[in-house]
Amino acid sequence: ELTSTQQVSELLHIHSPSGGIVTTIGVREGQYVTPQTELYMIADLSRVWVLVDIFEDELPWVQVGNESTMTIAGAPGQIFEGQLTYIYPYAERQTRTITARLEFDNEDLLLKPDMIADITIEANPQADVVAVPSEAIVRSGLREQVFVVREPGRFEPREVTVGVSSDGWT
To answer: Which of 14, 69, 74, 151 has its CA 20 to 30 A from that of 86?
Structure first.
């Protein structure tokens, strides 16, 4: 229109190339803009990414494709089901954790950017392992051990290699 009429219009109607929800407004009325100015940020929130931190010692237990569940305080009693889709190839220097990305469907738009969630990742099943109640492990600081019943009233300590703990079991 500017090229054909050689007149500057005070108002400009902008069509978005995609649908979604405006999450950021980068300009205000009367502001000077250039082609590099971000006017709006539009996000499709029907499917969301959730970033989680995984401790280094837990990394061998998870892999891309693991199923996950999530609960949030904003939707009590509702469980969201998703999947681990990417594990970042580096560790965070301060926390010594590795970031992983989970994806969840969000048709009802209950999940919002920057919410806090409780996440459970269903780790790969491990063969040839023994699970014991977490309270049964005695940690001395130098080693972990459990006590085995040798005969009634007689126990023997056994050193163990501890794996992952979850839901009161190790």
So the answer is: 74
State residue 3's pLDDT score: 85
State how far the alpha carbon of 131 is from the alpha carbons of 44, 78, 122, in Å.
42, 29, 16
Distances (CA, A) of 47 to 52, 73, 86, 128: 16, 19, 15, 37
Encoded tokens for 133 = 């109640």
Average predicted confidence (pLDDT) for the chain: 89
Q: How many Å apart are CA 58 and CA 14, to the nearest integer?
A: 48
pTM beyond cutoff 0.85: no
What tokens were used for 152? 């009634």
Instruction: Examine the pLDDT at 1 and tell me if it is beyond 80.
Output: no
Summary count for the chain: helices (H), strands (E): 1, 10
